[in-house]
């Protein structure tokens, strides 16, 4: 079951999310997780396009995902986001995909790093998150 303080985002499984058998294709769970993290940030007032204009972004560095039960075409799901660890240049999330009954279908841990995107051809490198983002994430944790 999801944690009580978790952010939750609804997802409907579309036909395009499934394989020939009508089961969600494993890689699409990554998209569901990404959408929930993006909407969580937006709910906190962190608009990623604003930071992208300053050449700062978040990139996924590591994912551990356990696919426990299948989701199927037309299912209504809920994707949760909880901050597990917050560091100066990275954040680790615990996320779950649940069905309407609260059964966990997918459990994941995602590490995202703050990076300076530079200009075309520049190396992408990890940098400390802006203080205002860290403060918002601390309050939300």
From TrEMBL:
Belongs to the 4-hydroxybenzoyl-CoA thioesterase family. Keywords: Hydrolase. The keyword Hydrolase applies. InterPro entries: 4-hydroxybenzoyl-CoA_TE, HotDog_dom_sf, Tol-Pal_acyl-CoA_thioesterase, YbgC/YbaW. It holds the Pfam family 4HBT_2. This is Tol-pal system-associated acyl-CoA thioesterase. One of its GO terms (molecular function) is fatty acyl-CoA hydrolase activity.
